[in-house]
Amino acid sequence: MNNRDYARVLQEIAQLMEISGENRFKIRAFENATRTVETLPEELEAVMDRGDLKELKGIGASIAQDLLQIRQHGTCDIHRSLLERLDPGLLDMLRVQGLGPKRIKLVYHELGVSNLDALKEAAESGRLRELKGLGAKTEEKVLAEIERLARGGDRTPLPQARHVAESLRDQLAALPQTERIAIAGSIRRGRETIGDVDLLVSSMDPAPIHQTFCGLTEVKEVLVSGDTKTSVRLHNGIQVDLRTVKDEVFGSALHYFTGSKEHHIELRTRAKRQGLRVSEYGVFRDDEDTPIASHTEEELYQALGLPYIPPELREGRGEIESAARHELPVLLQPDQIRGDGHMHTTETDGRHSIEEMALAARDLGYEFIVITDHSQAVRVANGMTPERFREHMARIREADGRVEGIRILTGIEVDILKDGTLDMDHDLLAEADWVVGSIHSHFNQAPDQMTERLLRGMRTGLLSCLGHPTGRILGGRDGYRYDFDAIVEACVELGVALELNGSSGRLDLNAELAEKAHRQGAMLVLGSDAHSTAGLHDLSFAVQQARRAGLPAEAILNTLPVDAFLKATRPDL
Ligand code: DGT
Ligand code: CA
Ligand code: CA
Ligand code: ZN
């Protein structure tokens, strides 16, 4: 660890003490120690090795002890106990520039806000401005900061990038000059994070398209402008490349700009052996200038003697060999989804009613949904007491009877508390059709403890699935640490499914872990985790990750008719 690492922990202690309202002198002591370490002209660890820590200004016996602990564990007793007593989510909030411990203290004590999600919601719903010294301006700044943090530096989380890309695509699709249009690049392949957005348009008359593109309100600056390629930076920092081609070569151009580079390299090598060439203009015989395929991607693969390879598999990980042997998995298709396993309503932190969610889901063609509002441990989300949950289930059943054309199942997203107990009366959980068990607190437990916590929750026999199983926030927080293999094994044994949570910012499980869980024999269920009717569309991100994982429809519980869906995790039914 370098001096900056030590200084960071000391500073966090000072900030957390300030939030918790500790005595001024204790806070000052850690602030002084932070400064000493930050400005130290040599390695702190060299000072430790000499046994000279206490010689340093502002470092007494007690902080010297803390520093030695930090050297061993990356944290110390006082740091850990503050995080446990308050909330580790506060560390994320401290990264929000312009907020600071004083204001966080206010927000924490007045609104109970202790993590970025809750902060975002408080800012969006205009609750920050009700606090002394905070205004609408603060809310705006906080939201912009959260967005910046969510981007986690250069790469943008897929959901955010795809929403932006879809909006641009739709605007350009409306132009009379546009023939075909598609989002290409890493978004089309469903990579978790994306470097830039790639849009492809076919047109006989591209100039007006490039012109309109440069003038869109989202655009902040034009980086490159031309007749076939324009690059811009948007106000939100995302870069977008637009390319236009003639419609005859749309298929091969789409293939080229979808990538990945690795897929292309392998494909070209293979083509070469067959006396063929592949470029963005098509597939060519070695000695000819007229392509034998260029109009669609399907024709392109066919010309190469291969079955179609879906974009999600084009990562150069052996998909070409599998395709050549006709061993590609048949991937889950969006229209095979019959229901959504995770959503919230106005009962807790959602924006729409049971009925509104059901009607929107019916419009998407679903046969069933599960309403899974929060349990009371999630105070910021207005989680339900047992009493409220009982009444909520009655309302869900009532809505189910009233709304035609879709089954509305009773459910809950129940917290798996820090000791593994479930945050709800067991008889009510047994009564619910579907129970998502999730972790929303004490993320920093030691791996053994976390594994035990999950196992204990699962052994109640009341969980249908584990919600957002790793807890990671895309571009933000890492997942909690536990023995993933052991949990998957227990899921198989106990008949508990693992969720692919599609909500923006999560993608959890991601493709890699979903594939692993599937290979170990676990059931998987997709959930949008929608907090509004619009949020139901986030299920498509879970579908895409399932496809990247190479999962067939049979691996996904959402493809089952509702009765089979219910029985899948309840062998007793
Ligand atoms: P990203 O933007 O970093 O998330 O990843 P991509 O895959 O979207 O990469 P990007 O935007 O640089 O390029 C889009 C596609 O264009 C890429 O997947 C394949 C193609 N491409 C770009 N540059 C090259 C290249 O130098 N060689 C080859 N074979 N293909 C390229
Ligand atoms: Ca890209
Ligand atoms: Ca690009
Ligand atoms: Zn949750």
From TrEMBL:
Recorded catalytic activity of this chain's protein: DNA(n) + a 2'-deoxyribonucleoside 5'-triphosphate = DNA(n+1) + diphosphate
One family name in Pfam for this protein: HHH_5
Matches recorded under InterPro entries: DNA-dir_DNA_pol_X (IPR002054), DNA_pol_B_palm_palm (IPR028207), DNA_pol_lamdba_lyase_dom_sf (IPR027421), DNA_Pol_thumb_sf (IPR037160), HHH_MUS81 (IPR010996), Hlx-hairpin-Hlx_DNA-bd_motif (IPR003583), NT_sf (IPR043519), PHP_dom (IPR004013)
Named cofactor requirement(s): Mg(2+)
Domain DNA-directed DNA polymerase X, first and last residues per copy: 1-315
GO-annotated biological processes: DNA repair
UniProt protein name: DNA-directed DNA polymerase
Species whose genome carries this gene: Lujinxingia litoralis
